[in-house]
Amino acid sequence: MNLGPACDRRRKNAAMTVLVTGAGGFIGRWLLDVLRRRNVRIVACFHHRSQAPVSAAGVEYARGDITDRAWVAKVLDRYRPDRIVHLAARSLVGPSWENPRDTCRVNVLGTVNLLEELRNIGFGGRLLLACSSAEYAAPDPPRPLLESDRLWPASIYGMSKLLADQMAQIYGSRYGLDILRVRPFFLIGPGKRGDVASDFAQGIVSIERGLSRRLLVGNLHPVRDFLDVRDGVEGLVTCLDRGVSGQVYNICSGRGVPVQELLGEFIAQARSPVEVVGDPSRVRSHDEPYKVGDPSRIRSLGWSPHYTLEQSVAAILEYWRAQPVDQLREQG
Ligand SMILES: NC(=O)c1ccc[n+]([C@@H]2O[C@H](COP(=O)([O-])OP(=O)(O)OC[C@H]3O[C@@H](n4cnc5c(N)ncnc54)[C@H](OP(=O)(O)O)[C@@H]3O)[C@@H](O)[C@H]2O)c1
Question: What is the pLDDT of residues 143-157, one digit of tens each?
């Protein structure tokens, strides 16, 4: 498959079906946006707890649970996809400590369900699996992580993604399935909830609306590889399109940004003065001090990021400014 823009390729791809699991989530919605601009048939799978993605021409919707093997088999049989992007997951580190069973059920068992069904039907297409930077061991001394670096997660979430990652590797090599894995770092952008960027944005918008006076913050020292989700989904499509079967790709910028610097960018774009106050309840006990990826491998496919941190922050603030009051996280 080629998802590129050339018209002759579009004609060639007219019958291509791309199935996306977790299509109602943060990355899924942005990915649908990119796919809709290509001439492919899209099957967007979403879960009952999320809002269905906005209806659009050229998109078919399938609602169900990835841990339900019968549903997975039914969807594959009905839509017969050529390409699958598997995003469905319990995707946050914090809740994985509260609910390890659910995290493993969805992230590991859900992935195995999909792999098993692909094996059963002798799937001849390509599967792209979203793994995570949370799988890597902390590098000592700190340096950008290569795909070949040691994997040793520091969270239940990271471990669940590592198990899914390795399961996919085994299924790919043992059963000859065309599977690629990607390890996104910290994708930020409009629509994301529960990460540091959306926390800052909600706090600032609350202040702009006069709903709170102070911005409560946790640990500002960790260094992270933030990447705009719009660049992230272009990275996914690049791997789907041109990635090498069996390979794993970091999806990252390669630039380490202290959370303090991210905060500075948000404050610089705030429309009201912001008083920052440390809040011990927001400091995570298991924060990794440094997590930055090396993007050389995905860059070798011709991908590179386009959005600056300033542009990402502007888009996130605009998103939260458009939200109703009850959507904003409570501040001090
Ligand atoms: N965002 C990042 O920076 C990042 C970084 C590294 C890796 N990733 C990985 O990328 C993928 C997408 O991340 P995201 O940020 O878009 O996460 P997200 O917003 O939480 O989306 C995940 C989607 O999976 C769905 N889902 C959960 N349980 C399901 C189930 N049992 N059956 C079917 N669908 C289910 C969720 O639906 P409900 O809400 O309805 O349950 C949600 O729509 C995940 O695999 C995540 O681990 C993300």
Answer: 999 999 999 999 999
